[in-house]
Amino acid sequence: MEILKDSQKPQLNHANVKLAPTPAWTPEQSADLYGINSWGNGYFRINQNGNVSVTPQGTAAGPSVDLHELTQDLLDRGIRVPIMIRFPDIIKSRVDLITGCFAKAVADHNYKGQFCGVYPIKVNQQRHLVEELVKHGRDKRMGLECGSKPELLVVLALMNTPNALVICNGFKDTEYIETAVLSQKLGRHTIIVVDRYEELKLIIDAAKKFNVRPHIGIRAKLNTQGAGKWVDSSGARSKFGLTSVEIMDGLEVLKKEDLLDCVELLHFHIGSQVPAIQSIKSSLKEGARFFTELHAQGCTGLRFIDVGGGLGVDYDGTGSSDSSVNYSEQEYANDVVSVLQGLCDEKGVPHPDIVTESGRFLVAHHSILVFNVMGVNDLRRPEPPRTATKADHPLMQDLQYIYEKMTQDNLNECFNDLLQAKNETLSLFTYGVLNLPQRAWAESMYFAIATKMVALAQQGEDTEDIVNALKEELCDTFFCNFSVFQSVPDSWAVGQVFPVMPIHRLSEQPRREATLADLTCDSDGKLEKFIDTETGKSKKTLNVHDLKAGEHYYLGVFLTGAYQEILGDLHNLFGDTDAVAVSIHESGYTLDHYVPGDTVTEVLSYVQYRHYNMVDNVRQAAEESIQKGTITKQEAKLLIKHYEEGLSGYTYLEDPEA
Ligand SMILES: *Cc1c(COP(=O)(O)O)cnc(C)c1O
Predict the structure, then answer these.
(1) Is residue 197 one of the residues assigned to a domain?
(2) Which among 101, 121, 177, 375 has the fewest CB atoms less than 10 Å away?
(3) Distance 272 CA to ligand 1 centre (A)
(4) What's the gap in Å between 320 CA and the centre of ligand 1?
(5) pLDDT value at position 306?
(6) Distance CA 138, CA 160 (A)
(7) Is 98 in the same domain as 78?
(8) How much is the pTM?
(9) What CATH number did the domain enclosing 178 receive?
(10) CB burial readout 458-478, b (16+ within 10 A) else e
């Protein structure tokens, strides 16, 4: 007997019509469907086993790990899904990439300044990550940027690279500024950027108090705006930066204090994830003019230009949306270098060293959230409910009629009738005409008709509208073990697209479409914006496989390394997930760190609940009930056991098999 592979078995479609066996599905087809070769940047691809593989060097020849096997291996060690898997090697590769691009641009243009990037820690402050960046960036003069007092404290503890910069941005008070100024005495090159005019006075005071010549930066408020989702970070109404008037006044004050030559750096930042190179170029032109003008005004110590962050990440592989970029990192470096060179040469100003504050670019790729699917809400109905008869409500008879009479040729008419019948069902139920069993029957029939209609429409022509409308109605909801608010908050907050796909079974055709609902009870707690590689836009459903009984189905959200972890919140008390850092080498991989996710007790303590009091209250209630005889001692013991285990457990759903 010939044994058919799954993919060769005759498939039943929605309307129970036998279809011819479909040709085998290949990992390459999955790659096209999910666009992984576009957004994966060489770090992520699909291997011949049909699993996602991770290649931190970004080149096919480098060492790689099978993400599905890795997940299994982590689960075997008792690490729990959802898991945040971090690959520090990817960060190294990103640091090498950006420094390499600037080195090339500097060499190609015969530019006289140096590149010295800083990593803005607000993008992801995890200690292991920042330590890794400092370590790997040591020979690349890589510095750190802080945007608040607590971040300055982190940076001072970690940054010890001679020659590298510490850039201080954000809202500053006396304590922030005094700490920054004093750090100079520890040998740090700490540049305090004047983000608001008032800060200038505080810097002057601190300089006098400690008798140091401070490193001063000036943030210019550009008129040029960025674009995309973070456009409000720039332009005349932006929060930070000095206007031309304030800069002129400030220079006057500094001159009087004999501190003009302490101005070392000009800074601007036009917002994060700038999708178009045109905005970057315009801001550079305006920013470079500020630079040459400060020089003309006698800032003889001026030697750095800090072009801020904004270097984008291609989240959807389209090259044309707000979640993407229309330029490469090399183009970015070339433009920065050539614009600066052009304007400096024109005005006879020496080429400054170039500081970038790229954060997203460096860390977005390095972490992946992997979670399992708990269950599915399947609305398809291959079988209609019992046949409606003359004894039934006329509306039910109408639905029965639509079901039976529907053919390829009258689809449009049937579709309109169906929508009308649906609305009538709902009103008649509300007005007390239809009872619950009748409503249930009508709902069942609605989905049976829709299921059959999609099957018919898919074989016909000019039925795209019907197919699309009904597919959205009929798509599955996969209930997934994660929280959007904790792990991918930007998807909810600013509608950003993240790449999402199954991490295994990619040599099987995904025959279903689903939206992904998270564990929170919030109706916004779902992912329903996915890459549509066919149209280059986004779509509401993800192609997924049929769930198999007794087998877990794992999905990954990729490119979650920037901002998501720290912006994540405790909605519904879902805490930090388990996290691991994995290093990959030729002979395999090692787990560098395991950071357990929050326990329920930890999360509750943020909202002032104490473990002891809670257990005590429940114990007392149980004791009283034992006295009253409403619960047995054994039952009370079990209740307390569950209660205590719950408090010390994971906030996410734990695998019942584990
Ligand atoms: C947030 C921020 C950055 C980082 O921007 P990315 O787009 O993540 O590179 C850099 N500089 C300043 C001043 C910022 O506020």
Answers:
(1) yes
(2) 375
(3) 6
(4) 21
(5) 98
(6) 9
(7) no
(8) 0.91
(9) 3.20.20.10
(10) eeeeebeebbebbbeebbbbb
